[in-house]
Design goal:
The chain is an all-alpha fold and 296 residues long. 81% of the residues lie in helices and 0% in strands.
C-alpha cells in the first residue's frame, strides 16, 4: 500500500469514529451499556461478513492471528467498553482530555517496543495536539477521579494496540482482531444491557455505528498500520476529538464554545505541521539520493 493510500485510510478512520456523538444524540431508549452491546454486535457481524466475503473462515482467521490477534482483540473490547463506563462516571470533557495523552503514550511505547524512528517533530506535534485538546475542554474539566482513572485505560489500551498492529503488520492479518473485539465487548455488555429496550430507530442507528463508526474505521486502522508509523497513526487519530463537536453542532444544534474552535485549530495545525515536515524530509532525502546517484 502506498503512503498516500494509508494516509487516506487513517484520516477516514477518525472521521468515521467522530460520528458517535451526533448519532447517539438521536437514540431514543437504549441505555449506554445497551448501546455498547448493539454497536459491538453489529461491528462483529460486519467484520465477520467481510471475512466470509474474502472466502476466509472467520474462526480460522482469528486462530491465524494468534496471540497478537487475541491481544489486539482484547484491547479493542477494552477501549469500546471503558469509554462508555467512563462517560457514566465523569464528563465527556474529562474523558477527552485524558484521551488526548494517547499520542505521547504511543510515542513512548513505540520507542520501547519498535525500531521505528521517532523524529523530534513528532514529539512536538504530540505535545501541541495535547495542549490544544486541553484548551478545548479545560474549562469544563471537573475532579471526578474514578471516572478519569477509567478513562485513562482508553489511551493506554490505544497505545498498546497501535504498537501491536504496527509490530505485527507484516506478519499476520489483524483484521480478525476487530471481529474478536466486538465479540468480547458483546459478552461483557450483554448481562448489563438486559432487559433490551432499544426501539427500531435505535437499532438502525446502532447498526450504523457498529458498521461505519466502529467496524469499518477499525479495519482502516489495521490496514494503515502496514505503512504508517505508530506515533503518526495516534496523532491523526486525534481528528476524532476535533471533528466530533463539529458534527454535533451541524447535526444536533449544539454550538461549540470559542475555546473548542481555537483548540481544534491548534490540533489541526499540529497534525498538518507534522505531515508537512515529514513530506519535506522525504523530499530532501529523495533529492539527496538522486544527487548522490548522479555523482556516481
Amino acid at each position: 500500500m502506498t503512503r498516500g493510500a494509508a494516509l487516506a485510510l487513517m484520516v477516514a478512520a477518525p472521521t468515521l469514529w467522530s460520528s458517535a456523538g451526533v448519532v447517539t444524540r438521536h437514540i431514543e431508549r437504549a441505555e449506554p451499556i445497551e448501546q455498547v452491546f448493539w454497536r459491538s454486535f453489529f461491528a462483529f457481524a460486519f467484520v465477520a461478513g467481510f471475512l466470509l466475503f474474502r472466502e476466509k473462515n472467520p474462526v480460522k482467521a482469528v486462530r491465524a492471528a494468534g496471540l497478537p490477534g487475541l491481544f489486539s482483540g482484547v484491547l479493542w473490547a477494552v477501549m469500546s467498553t471503558a469509554f462508555i463506563l467512563a462517560l457514566s462516571l465523569t464528563t465527556t470533557a474529562n474523558c477527552l482530555v485524558v484521551m488526548s495523552i494517547s499520542p505521547l503514550l504511543t510515542v513512548i511505547c513505540a520507542r520501547i517496543v519498535l525500531s521505528d524512528p521517532i523524529p523530534l517533530r513528532t514529539w512536538i506535534a504530540a505535545l501541541a495536539a495535547m495542549a490544544g485538546i486541553v484548551f478545548m475542554f479545560g474549562s469544563s474539566v471537573d475532579t471526578h477521579v474514578t471516572g478519569m482513572l477509567v478513562a485513562l485505560v482508553i489511551p493506554v489500551a490505544s497505545a498498546l494496540n497501535v504498537v501491536t498492529l504496527r509490530k505485527n503488520a507484516t506478519k499476520v492479518d489483524l483484521i480478525p482482531a476487530v471481529m474478536l473485539g466486538g465479540a468480547i465487548a458483546c459478552l461483557i455488555a450483554l448481562p448489563l444491557a438486559l432487559p433490551i429496550s432499544a426501539s427500531g430507530k435505535d437499532l438502525l442507528l446502532l447498526a450504523f455505528l457498529g458498521v461505519f463508526q466502529l467496524g469499518l474505521p477499525c479495519m482502516f486502522l489495521v490496514l494503515a498500520s502496514r505503512t504508517l508509523l505508530a506515533p503518526e497513526m495516534a496523532l491523526i487519530g486525534l481528528l476524532e476529538v476535533v471533528l466530533g463537536p463539529l458534527w454535533v453542532w451541524l447535526g444536533a444544534g449544539e454550538e461549540p464554545a470559542g475555546t473548542t474552535l481555537v483548540g481544534g485549530a491548534v490540533v489541526l495545525a499540529a497534525l498538518a505541521g507534522n505531515e508537512l515536515a515529514a513530506l519535506s524530509s522525504r523530499t530532501r532525502s529523495a533529492r539527496y539520493r538522486r544527487t548522490a546517484s548522479s555523482c556516481r
